[in-house]
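Please supply some protein, with C-alpha cells.
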Amino acid sequence: KAFRDLLKLIKHKPTTDEQALISSFALSELARKIHKSKKQYVLLPTAKEEIRIISAGLSDPSIHKYTPIAHLVNGTPHSTAAGDSCLDAMGGYSIDMKFWWYYEWPKSIREQTLRFVKNNKNGDLVTINALEYATILVNYAASYHYWCILDHCKTNAIQYPNVLLLADNKSAESWTRKGCKNSLAGRALGRLQCALMMNNP
C-alpha cells in the first residue's frame, strides 16, 4: 500500500515548491524501495543474450547512439521488395533493386514445423510466423546490400534510403516493428534483426 501511495504522489506534475519537495521525496523513496526489493522475476531464457547485445552496442564507440530523423518519419519508398515463406521453402524478389532469391528449408527446420511438431510444450516448434519473419530479414539484408554495399546511396544521392518490405503475415510484420514476445525462434531472429540494423543508413 505504501508503494502505491508513493506512486500517487508523483503521478501529477507539482505546481508549488512544497508539492515539488513532496514529489522529489516520493521519487527517491520509490527508487530505494525498487532497488532494495528482494522480489524475484521470471526472465525468458533469451534475456541474457539480449542484454549482451544491448551492452555490446552501448559500449562500442563505432555504433551510433542516435537515430536520424529520416528513420522516424513516413516517406515514399525508394524501392520495394516482396517475399513469402511456407513450411518447405522461402523466397523473395525486388524488381527495382534487381534481385531474387530462393531457399529451401533444411530437414532440421522442416522437422520442427507443424507437420511434425503438434504442440509447442517443449518450445521446439518453428511456426510459420517465424519462417515469414526470416523472409523479411533476408529481403532486408538484400536491400542493405543493394543500397550500401553496391553504393547506390551515393549513385542516387540518397543518404537515407527508404525500402518497403512486403509480407503477407501480420505476426511477422508486427515482430519486425515491435519485436517478438512468445516464440524462441522469433526472438532469435529479432536479435539478428537488431544486429543488422546497427548503423543502418
